[in-house]
Amino acid sequence: MSKIVVFGASGQLGSCLKKVAAERYFSDIAFPEESASNILDLPSLEKLYDTEKPQFVINCAAYTAVDKAEEDIETARKINKEGAANLAKLCQLYNSALIHVSTDFVFKGDRPKLLSEDDETDPISVYGQTKLEGELAIAEVTDKYFIIRTSWLYSEYGNNFVKTMQRLGRERDELKVIVDQVGTPTYAIDLADAILNIAFSGNDAYGTYHYSNEGAISWYDFAKSIFEVSEIDTKVIPIPTSEYITKARRPAYSVLDKTKIKETFKIEVPYWKDSLISCIHKLNALTNNS
Ligand SMILES: NC(=O)C1=CN([C@@H]2O[C@H](COP(=O)(O)OP(=O)(O)OC[C@H]3O[C@@H](n4cnc5c(N)ncnc54)[C@H](OP(=O)(O)O)[C@@H]3O)[C@@H](O)[C@H]2O)C=CC1
Ligand SMILES: Cc1cn([C@H]2C[C@H](O)[C@@H](COP(=O)(O)OP(=O)(O)O[C@H]3O[C@@H](C)C(=O)[C@@H](O)[C@H]3O)O2)c(=O)[nH]c1=O
Q1: N or C: which end of the chain has fewer CB within 10 A?
Q2: pLDDT for position 2
Q3: What atom in ligand 1 is closest to the CA of residue 14?
Q4: What pLDDT, on a 0 to 100 scale, did the predictor assign at position 287?
Q5: Domains (ranges, CATH) in the chain?
Q6: CA–centroid distance, residue 52 to ligand 2 (Å)
Q7: Distance CA 109, CA 113 (A)
């Protein structure tokens, strides 16, 4: 039996949860292999819930390829909606609380306004739409959920904007990066820490919460800082969204208001630049040791 079971354990956030749990000496947390924890495979899920009888389930499993989702709608919907619903149904059956991770992309983000949990959702991409459907499917079958919407995740694990910029920056003298999409980067290690704080808080104020790092910047600002902190000498050219063609549309302004999560769980949120520096130090250490 484990107090917590994590789904999507080998992804970026799942890896960060593993790291933070080990650093905080939490042993009562299981990270099952994907072969035994496919969120679309109900019989295996039932077996897992029956063995573990978890107090908490953390769902980091998702279809996160934002552009690919535009053409792979059914797979995105299966994983982001039906997968989330499967976990919620079993949570209801086994009286487990579900901590589910969602996204700023559930918002349209067409106004420069801080987004709170009660603001109207109106996704403009398949990824955002299927993530919203997942949120709604969870709320339909259980009340014992924490849905945590976050934005622009990066870390030393998996694929993310920081690692992409470092790779491209080392290959090229200049890069064009969008300047009119504003949001907040979130170090997935900070989010993992916050999620575990919620699970161990004993506070059952279920509902939807927003979490990102502090501050608000554009992808262009973020790229400039990544190169500055990484000491990579690449010129960054600011461009409007219209000059960077992608399959999926993305919100122009999706800065999340974190008041509710900070007040409810007494969580301290690091400033984005401080966390970026921590992450790049870790990435440098990994490169130097390899
Ligand atoms: N990345 C970001 O910038 C942001 C992410 N989020 C949300 O945060 C959460 C974590 O994201 P992140 O860790 O970055 O994403 P990743 O893509 O790194 O991880 C998702 C994981 O889910 C796994 N997975 C996919 N399908 C299934 C399935 N059927 N059963 C079990 N596991 C499955 C993937 O495995 P495989 O690789 O084998 O497919 C992968 O390991 C997601 O809910 C995402 O929507 C929110 C805002 C920003
Ligand atoms: C590589 C690159 C990207 N960009 C832009 C495209 C895009 O608008 C932005 C970020 O691109 P990415 O493809 O890395 O990130 P993207 O997949 O859009 O990131 C999103 O992922 C999902 C999962 C979320 O939930 C969101 O919160 C958000 O993090 O940067 C440039 O302008 N220049 C470049 O060279």
Answers
A1: C
A2: 67
A3: 13
A4: 81
A5: 4-156+185-214+254-270 (3.40.50.720)
A6: 36
A7: 8
Query: What's the pLDDT score for residue 289?
Result: 75
Torsional sign, CA 126, 154, 111, 115: positive
Please identify, by atom number, the ligand 2 atom nearest to the C-alpha of residue 150.
27
Which entry of 49, 63, 127, 187 is annotated as an active-site residue? Answer: 127
Distance, CA 110 to ligand 2 centroid (Å)?
A: 17
CB 202 within 8 A of CB 266: no
Q: How many angstroms is it from 290 CA to the middle of ligand 2?
A: 28
* Token representation of residue 6: 């994590």
- Say whether 127 is catalytic: yes
Of 77, 73, 257, the closest CA to residue 149 belongs to 257
CB 18 within 8 A of CB 193: no
Q: Is 153 in the pocket of ligand 1 (CB under 6 A)?
A: yes
- Strands 153-154 and 186-187, how do they pair? parallel
User: So what's the pLDDT on residue 1?
Assistant: 55
pLDDT value of position 157: 97
Nearest CA to ligand 2 atom 33: 177
Cα angle 98, 5, 197 (rounded to 5 degrees) comes to 65
Is the model's pTM score more than 0.95? yes
What is the interface pTM, i.e. ipTM, of the complex? 0.99
Amino acid at 128: G
Ranges of H-type helices in 118-258: 126-141, 161-171, 188-199, 219-230
Residue among 6, 12, 81 whose CB has most ligand 1 atoms within 8 A, to mutate? 12
pLDDT at 80: 98
Strand pairing report for 174-178 and 235-239:
parallel
**Which atom of ligand 1 is nearest to 15's Cα?**
13
Q: Which ligand has the shortest distance to the CA of 161?
A: 2
Mean pLDDT taken over the chain: 97
Q: Of the bound ligands, which one is closest to the alpha carbon of residue 135? A: 1
